[in-house]
Specification:
Layout: H1 5-19, E1 23-24, H2 49-52, E2 62-70, E3 91-99, H3 105-119, E4 127-132, H4 144-153, E5 160-163, H5 165-168, E6 169-171, E7 176-187, E8 205-218, E9 224-237, H6 238-245, H7 258-267, H8 286-305, H9 314-329, H10 337-349, H11 354-358, H12 360-390, H13 404-416, H14 423-433, H15 437-447, H16 453-470, H17 475-481, H18 488-491, E10 497-499, E11 502-504
Parallel strand pairs: 1-2, 4-5
Antiparallel strand pairs: 2-3, 3-9, 4-7, 6-7, 7-8, 8-9, 10-11
This protein binds adenosine-5'-triphosphate (ATP) and magnesium ion (3 copies).
Residues 167, 207 line the site of one magnesium ion.
Length: 507
């Protein structure tokens, strides 16, 4: 039996498209065109937002695909845990099936259970399902219907578990489509009942599939409004499914990652192999850094081949610079490592996402350019820092050599010589140097200047709301920018509503 990741992806699509009559819709690019409520596409349902909101008529009543997703920034930000566990990446593929008025809860649960237990042959004794237990604040009652569905399907009573809004009320972002959900979790190790450990962050008992019943819209004022229809929206973590089916306890031990980890090892002299270890205190350990670099290289490959330009995207640029930094400091490769990794990744993922094959040249050009920019900034930062720290030993704690942007920010601050880092200054550091809260905190401690992180958060929120208007990008103005990239974006225009000459997702 073929359990390669490619075969698993294919089997999922075959099941829904050939056996259950769904239409295939390509993965959208990870760029959330015209939708300022998310920084990257974070779930398969993003491209169908207009349909859920009742603003668009669906082309097909049931569709399925595998969608490129990125969870950096916003409500579903996973950047900070990447590397420390084996099942959260910044980039992952979400396998999904949708029903826009065709089937409902019952069939959605049946399909998922059938696929996992009969097609992929996972024993029910290793599966758990969860359902929404109700929430007073949301004003939504317990989802007893779904509980009953799972019982009818034959799931053991003590493996059907209720959870609250945090786990079983899914939302796309701070606003937008949302709804109650039911999830399937897999115990990767034990067969005895471990119900009490579901949703507790165990690395060997993980969530794989989320079946959402989108029936509400979270509005800008924070309130929830019922939508005219409740549609089925499901998403299964492809890398998690692969690791379960390949009998591994971490996504990094599967063929979605092993070729990247091997390449890092082969390309770097005298660096020990990836050994797959996790530990509570191993943030700086080699294995963790292997995972971070492999993850980041995948995210970068996807972003660049989808036409995101680092110059215009701080989040992507930070991930890029972190990767250059790891290549140099940990893997002792001054140049070119990231490019080698991306080459392999484009090759590997290109089968499923042809745009990745097509845009290889552009990806390489941007990588060369960004690496050059990074090297220049870094050289300058090192020189500057030597001068700065020579007469201030306290600043050593900043480990400034690690971050050129910290040096630049430091120089800005000392020019003004302020009494505190107030929210205005903090915002400026964020905006011009891309410093996050943590880096600003570090600076404030080293310089002995008070800093209130809460105020910065408030300021950022404010700025986001303000820029919302401005960021309703004109789709047609964007196209020339992307003209070197494949025109995949044209295919997705139908997901947007035309408003004058602007394509938007209406709120
Ligand atoms: P978790 O609780 O593990 O963070 P989630 O509830 O945030 O997952 P969903 O928003 O429900 O995830 O997304 C649907 C599926 O996508 C999940 O069941 C999981 O299999 C997968 N998934 C979510 N986040 C990631 C990630 N960062 N890396 C890999 N797979 C992910
Ligand atoms: Mg999550
Ligand atoms: Mg979850
Ligand atoms: Mg979930």
């Amino acid at each position: 039996k073929d359990v390669s990741s490619k075969a698993i992806r294919r089997r999922f699509l075959e099941y829904f498209i050939e056996e259950k009559g769904h239409n295939f819709v390509r993965s959208s690019p990870v760029v959330p065109f015209c939708d300022p409520t998310v920084s990257f596409v974070n779930a398969g349902m993003n491209q169908f937002k207009g349909i859920f909101l009742g603003k668009q008529v669906p082309q097909f009543a049931k569709v399925a695909n595998s969608q490129k997703c990125i969870r950096v920034g916003g409500k579903h930000n996973d950047l900070n845990v990447v590397g420390s566990d084996g099942y959260h990446q910044t980039f992952f593929e979400m396998l999904g099936n949708w029903s826009f008025g065709d089937y409902s809860k019952n069939t959605a649960c049946l399909y998922a259970w059938d696929l996992l237990t009969n097609v992929f042959k996972l024993p029910p004794s290793r599966l758990y399902v969860t359902y929404f237990e109700g929430d007073n604040k949301l004003g939504i009652p317990e989802d007893t219907e779904t509980k009953e569905i799972w019982r009818m399907i034959g799931v053991q009573e003590d493996r059907i578990l209720p959870f609250g809004a945090k786990d079983n009320f899914w939302e796309m972002g701070l606003t937008g489509p949302c709804g109650t959900c039911t999830e399937i979790h897999i115990d990767n190790r034990e067969t005895r009942n471990r119900s009490e450990f579901v949703n507790k962050g165990l690395h060997d008992l993980i969530e794989v599939w989320n079946i959402v019943f989108i029936g509400y819209n979270r509005q800008t004022d924070g309130s929830i409004a019922a939508l005219p229809n409740t549609y089925v929206d499901t998403g299964m973590g492809f890398e998690r499914l692969t690791s379960v089916l390949q009998g591994k306890i971490s996504n990094y031990d599967t063929d979605n990652f092993s070729y990247i980890l091997n390449r890092i090892h082969k390309s770097c002299n005298n660096i020990p192999e990836y050994s797959g270890k996790f530990g509570e205190t191993d943030w700086d350990s080699l294995d963790t850094n292997y995972r971070i670099l492999a993850d980041h290289a995948r995210m970068i490959s996807v972003c660049l081949s989808d036409g995101i330009i680092p110059e215009q995207n701080q989040k992507l640029r930070r991930v890029l610079r972190k990767s250059f930094l790891l290549s140099e400091n940990v893997f002792l490769r001054e140049r070119g490592l990231l490019k080698e990794l991306c080459k392999d990744i484009l090759e590997n993922l290109g089968d499923a996402y042809p745009e990745m094959h097509k845009n290889e040249n552009q990806v390489n050009q941007i990588l060369d350019y960004e690496e050059e920019v990074y090297r220049n900034i870094r050289e300058k930062a090192i020189k500057d820092w030597k001068v700065i720290s020579a007469n201030n030993p306290k600043l050593e704690s900043l480990e400034i050599l690690e971050s050129p942007s910290l040096v630049a920010a430091y120089k800005d601050i000392t020019l003004i010589n302020p009494k505190e880092i107030d929210s205005k200054l903090a915002f400026k550091l964020y905006d011009t140097h891309g410093l996050d809260e943590e880096s600003i905190e570090k600076l404030s401690v080293a310089l002995n200047l008070p800093f209130n992180a809460k105020q910065l958060e408030y300021k950022l929120q404010e700025a986001k709301t303000r820029s919302k208007e401005g960021s309703l990008l004109k789709f047609d103005n964007l196209l020339p920018l992307l003209s070197n990239f494949s025109k995949t974006n044209d295919d997705f225009k139908y997901n947007y509503v035309k408003n004058g000459d602007t394509y938007i997702f209406p709120d």
